[in-house]
Design a protein that fits this description.
Serine Threonine Protein Phosphatase 5, Tetratricopeptide repeat; 11 helices; 70% helix
Length: 167
Amino acid sequence: MTAGGGHVAVLEKLWDWAKELQLKPDELRNEVLLSKDKYGQMAWHMAEAGGHVEVLEKTWDWVEELKLAPNELKKMFLSVDKDGNNTANLATSTGSKELLDKTWTMCKETQHSDDLSKLLVAAWHDAAARGYLEILERLWLCAGKVQLNTQELQRRLLLDENRDGEN
């Protein structure tokens, strides 16, 4: 809830209290960063959906501090909420280029090119559906940096169906 509201100071205080209680890293990882609310969203998703770059950055600091394993990072970026939205969908839905750039940078540092491709295709469909031309242009450039077969990914951006079965 706090992540979705963009309350960085509150998040920092909660984190300080959790450390004061000497919660184990596994507890912090599983109960704070990777747990989901009733809508299937993690703190990361809430920060994305709310367009809160500062909260996203603070959450990323904690991800680095706790040294999340590759499978945990994959879960954070690729897991979907009850509406089928992953982190790329949520970042794109805000229309914020700054949020998208920040999210892309973080994903690029940690994800395999196949996972990046999935995130790009998801974001592409949302941006196209919302008419976000500047976001589409950024995603097109990102696609050129993801994998050796750039044309194949760009082909997927144009031809793959979205989660509703639409091109």
